């Protein structure tokens, strides 16, 4: 019982550090992406690559720090979302690729 | 002995996972979110494929204004954060705390919807309507589908708050609140891609 109490205390009764750090990270990532675009310092392809990478980190912050993706039966939940993103990647990248042939 | 064991098991984890029913429904919701990712990916694919098919109408560069979409982004990001704090209070079994944070989340959500409606009205005023070009059709369908999700999320969250108010925090209301929280965070996940693939990309290309 004592062990349970301490689990509860650490996880749910403390200050919500995880959420605060997640929020700060998401703000930093948002403004970093905006800065990369507005500064125009990088060539177009590099700019696009940079904002896509920043978006992926932003989504990981949401999934792991806000949505608790990896808690409880984390493996099943993660596989379900990973499969969704795999199909999404095929649909989006495939469409851009096909349309690049001068449609 | 077995009764003690049941109580101990329940107090070990969050209330929304206390029953098998709750666990299954939360997992089922993750599967739904996976399907939502695929739904939005189709809309993103159409938008990106038609990005330059403007048919002589306004282009992405003409329309998008940094101030507007940055405010929308910050409103939704902050609402995702306050919703997370609501779920944190849910796990502390603090009903007043949950309701307060969810109410703040709703206000940010309403602010977001208000900004988006204003944005659409402004665009239509500039002659950029749903039927102007393939680019604009796909823009309104993609961003509008997200907006419809946020609107539904607002109504859903109000319904869950009423139930939390009436019945307090129990395994059923905790599960409902946790799931509506997942839905709300997911809307922010989709928005991150809209922010990146629609607005920022529109400024670059």
Explain what this protein looks like in three dimensions.
The complex is a heterodimer of chains A (103) and B (205). Chain A folds into two domains: 67 residues; 33 residues. In chain A, helix 2 packs antiparallel against helix 3. Chain A contains four helices and no strands. The longest helix of chain A is centred in the last third of the chain and has 26 residues. Chain A has 103 residues and is mainly alpha-helical. With 205 residues, chain B is mostly helical. Chain B has a single domain, classed as Four Helix Bundle (Hemerythrin (Met), subunit A) (Up-down Bundle), CATH 1.20.120.80. The radius of gyration of chain B is 20 Å and the shape is elongated. Classes of the chains: A mainly alpha (103), B mainly alpha (205). Chains A and B meet through helix 1, helix 2, helix 3 and helix 4 of A and helix 1, helix 2, helix 4 and helix 7 of B.
Average pLDDT level of chain A: 85
* Total beta strand runs of chain A: 0
Q: What separation lies between the terminal Cα atoms of chain A?
A: 66 Å
Average predicted local confidence, pLDDT of chain B: 92
Strand content of chain A: under 5%
Task: Enumerate the spans of chain B where pLDDT stays under 50 for 5 or more consecutive residues.
Answer: 1-10
Strand proportion of chain B, as a percent range, falls in under 5%
The major β-sheet of chain B equals: none
Please trace the helix and strand order of chain B, writing H or E for each element.
HHHHHHH
Shape of chain A: flat
**Secondary-structure element string of chain A:** HHHH
CATH class of chain B: Mainly Alpha
